[in-house]
Amino acid sequence: MMLVLLSASALAAPAPTDTSPPQLHLPAGATDNVKSNPDTIPTNTITDCGLNEAAQQLALLIIQDPLQQRTRLSCHPLLAEAAAEKAKTMAQKGIVNHYVGGLGANQRLRMIGYQLPPFYSGAIGNQVEAVAGGYSTAEEVWAAFKASNGHRSHLLGELPFYRQQLHIGVGFHYKWSSPHVEYWTVYIAREAVAEDIDVTCYDIGCIPP
């Protein structure tokens, strides 16, 4: 079993907030495991989280975890597509790695049209991706991610830098003949806004000029 850490290391883990975990707002009947918020117009479907059931299950575990620090985490179809393609590429290569295919995670998202903030690092940078191999179920891989400080900090938004990331997409690919058999990719990111150009960010948070 294999996990790959984010290149940006976590320095601290804030205490969990007292707010309820964010919910994925789905149309009625989309899934028996998720309750829609009646005060919010549904903006996501389950397929925006991931392209298969395993990916969707992991997305829901991340979104609904009681320790999730983000008050809102929405599934994004571009991230789901990118995650599915990355998981497939890792399975084909038999490697669990951020740089399979020759691109860093940040650059991979930019190339598919998801515009990260300009201060996110370039060609080999990664502030958005978690990958794993060799875990058979969503529950198993989520437990492994949470046991890793770097992954937990990103996926649960434990630092202010990561807490600003409000989009998620998850990929899963199964290939029996590949060394790790099951391959998982999670993207949690945010798109650029006009104010970003005047902000400098570090692993522990962002500051104005």
Would you summarize the structure shown here?
This protein is an alpha+beta fold and 209 residues long. 27% of the residues lie in helices and 15% in strands.
What topology does this entry show?
Layout: E1 2-4, H1 53-64, E2 74-75, H2 77-93, H3 105-111, E3 129-133, H4 138-146, H5 149-155, H6 160-163, E4 167-174, E5 182-189, E6 200-202, E7 205-207
Parallel strand pairs: 2-4
Antiparallel strand pairs: 1-3, 3-5, 4-5, 6-7
Helix pairs in contact: 1-4
Identify the notable features of this structure and list them briefly.
209 residues; Pathogenesis-related Protein p14a; two-stranded antiparallel ribbon
Alpha-beta classification: alpha+beta
Helix content: 25-40%
| Average pLDDT score | 81
How many angstroms separate the termini?
43 Å
Query: What is the number of independent domains?
Result: 1
Compute the CA-based radius of gyration: 16 Å
> What is the spatial order of strands in the main beta sheet?
1-3-5-4-2
CATH topology: Pathogenesis-related Protein p14a
Overall spatial form? globular
Task: Report the top-level CATH class.
Answer: Alpha Beta
Order of helices and strands: EHEHHEHHHEEEE
Question: Main sheet, how many strands, which sense, barrel?
Answer: 5 strands, mixed
Oligomeric grouping of the chains: single chain
DSSP helical segment count? 6
Strand % is 15-25%
